[in-house]
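Students often ask why we bother encoding 3D structure as a string. The short answer is that it lets us treat folding as translation between two languages. Here is a chain of 196 residues written in the first language.
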Amino acid sequence: MSKIILITHQKGGVGKSTLTFNLAQNLSQSTKVAVLDFDLQGSLSQLSELVTDIDIIPFTENVTAISEMDYDFIFIDTPPYLSNHLPQLIQLADLIIVPTKAGILDLLAIKSTLELIKQEEKSENALVVFNMIKANTTLTLDILIGLEEYNIPIAKTHISDLVAFTRSVLVKGVESDKNAQKQINKLTEEVLTKLI
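And here it is in the second language, the structure alphabet:
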């Protein structure tokens, strides 16, 4: 049976699509992986002809058909707003990843997404991931403290703002950058641990 991983946050620019791609690419070396691109911008769908290790499938209205798909892992990339499909996708997901930058506006914007996850009673199946983190920032600690009120697990692994991640969709991953690969490996390990 497929493990469904939803990547969501109502704010744009937090790196949902890039994180989705890199986690899917990292798992594709030993498993059968699909990425469902629910974002109408279709950023990941445009890569479907370039990528051979994962199946990238454009937006579909039929949410219930997702659980019938024959993959080991199904990643769902969502748009930068709270869509009508989101409550149903949250219910369907085995894990909900909420990427966020370490900024005050990001902390304010994450509230609606985390409250929807709580409302759907899926807090234990969620994981906030600090993404695109600038080196030597002290703001991350302030944001961590601000997130405590939601009682949603926070990943130990933080993904840095490295060029390797930005370029990863063109070169099919981050293998050429040891630091980036180490970070995505650690996050993949955390994801798998949450799914077991």
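Translate back mentally: The chain has one domain: 3-195. Keep this in mind for the problem set.
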